[in-house]
Specification:
The complex is a heterodimer of chains A (116) and B (154). Chain A has 116 residues and is α+β, with helices and mostly antiparallel strands. In chain A, 53% of the residues lie in helices and 14% in strands. Chain A is built from four helices and three strands, in the order H-E-H-H-E-E-H. The longest helix of chain A has 26 residues, at 85-110. Chain B has helices spanning 2-41, 46-68, 72-75; strands at 115-122, 127-134, 137-142. Classes of the chains: A alpha+beta (116), B alpha+beta (154). Chain A binds chain B through residues 10, 12-16, 29-32, 35, 48-55, 57-58, 72, 74, 76-79, and chain B through 23-24, 26-28, 30-31, 33-35, 37-38, 56-57, 59-60, 62-64, 66-67, 72-73, 75-78, 80.
């Protein structure tokens, strides 16, 4: 069912949170992050390089992720990103806020006059 | 001492800026190569795969140029941009095309603002402009005179 979902744009402001979550699972390079997001969302989200790299720069600048150059499985050099301690804390906080907001929104969308 | 410090800080910023730039170039190249490898592995011809990857990295390069112009925050999807556009809605008052129900023998649609006379009667201390006739009574309408005595019927 989820595979039928067409690729769409991310909700404004959620890309950073999703990148943090992806990197919380394991350190990845830029291309790997894009592929992993597409895999986990079952094709619903496709993040292109034009959105991904500015987001990575900003997260790195804010000290939420750190990158180091390593050799990939294809023998190429790539910058692998991993989460810092403050990145982990930020992810935890943003996840909590997201849960609270989506619960509230879902409650509003399901509301009927009878239950008010 | 202060100018020397400023110079060092400036050089440091310049050097760091260039370093970041080079690193991003290298990263984009790595992205391109990995993308080509993956597409080839998925069965695409190397030339087609390279072209597709180049197209995508071109978009990222554009974002890199924008970053240099200081618009990283906008691109990273964090800030919602709003633009101001002038309203195209007419500012004219809405008037119903349906005339009002007659309540008297003669129907009045409000004061008539037909131009009847236009002229300036200036005296030593007054400046009056007669412009409108409201319901048959000519009324002098005061124009631009702070030192006039008051309205005057002409």
């Amino acid at each position: 069912m989820a595979a039928d979902v067409k690729p769409s744009g991310l909700i404004q402001g959620t890309l950073h949170m999703l990148i943090l979550k992806t990197l919380a699972l394991e350190p990845l390079h830029g291309y790997g992050i894009g592929v992993r997001l597409e895999q986990i969302s079952r094709g619903a989200f496709q993040v292109n390089a034009g959105s991904l790299f500015p987001a990575l720069r900003r997260l790195e600048r804010d000290g939420l992720i750190k990158g180091d150059w390593r050799v990939t499985e294809n023998n190429r050099r790539a910058k692998y990103y991993s989460l810092t301690a403050s990145g982990r804390a930020r992810l935890k906080r943003e996840t909590r806020e997201w849960d609270a907001q989506t619960t509230a929104i879902a409650r509003i969308l399901r509301a009927s006059l009878g239950e008010l | 001492m202060m100018p020397a410090r400023r110079l060092i800080a400036g050089l440091k910023a310049l050097f760091q800026g260039r370093q970041v730039e080079q690193e991003l170039d290298e990263e984009l190249r790595a992205y391109l190569d990995t993308s080509v490898d993956e597409n080839v592995r998925a069965g695409m011809a190397r030339e087609v795969a390279a072209r597709a990857a180049r197209l995508e990295t071109a978009r990222a390069s554009r974002s890199k140029r924008s970053r240099n112009r200081g618009s990283l925050d906008r691109l990273s999807g964090r800030t919602l941009m709003a633009t101001v556009r002038s309203s195209r809605v007419s500012r004219a008052r809405y008037t119903s095309p349906i005339p009002p129900v007659p309540r008297a023998e003669s129907i009045s649609y409000g004061p008539t603002r037909a131009l009847t006379a236009s002229g300036i009667c200036a005296s030593r201390r007054e400046l009056w402009s007669v412009k409108y006739s409201v319901r048959g009574t000519r009324t002098a309408v005061q124009y631009s005179t702070g030192w006039a005595i008051g309205p005057r019927t002409v």
